[in-house]
Amino acid sequence: MEMTKRSNGSDWEAEGAVDQQILFKMGNEYYGLSISLVREIIKPLPITRFPKSPPYVEGVIDLRGRILPIINLRKMFDLEPLEETDDTRFVDLQMDGLNIGIIVDAVSEVMNIPQNLIEPAPPIIAGVEGKYLQGIARLNDKLIMLLDVDEIFGQWKKK
Question: Which of 8, 21, 96, 111 has the smallest count of CB within 10 Å of its CB?
Fold first, then answer.
């Protein structure tokens, strides 16, 4: 994973605030998460499944002595299933009172996204409820859906 460079050496921070996001793919779509939430990115490990959990909860992994629940965002967002590939990764997220891992098809890059390029999300986008999105960024030839982790995982956060 490599850091992206600012085009023409310009200083985006002088033009306004930026959000540093980790970009990942699910299918042909790009999604973004605040890099401040990401503890690490790992290759998939064996998952221990447990009964009667929601279909999008794959189970748990033992990550160097830490038990980490693994969520399949494809299932959560009702996207078509995809077999694991060499690019599949687990992203270990650390939020207030919650550590959780998500499965993504591939991690793309870490990018500074100027806030003036982020637009509010329409109510429904490609089957993903708009409430799960903080916004959509338009960068070069890509639309990047920026996920709202509080909305997605808030039900499991410690109060």
Answer: 8
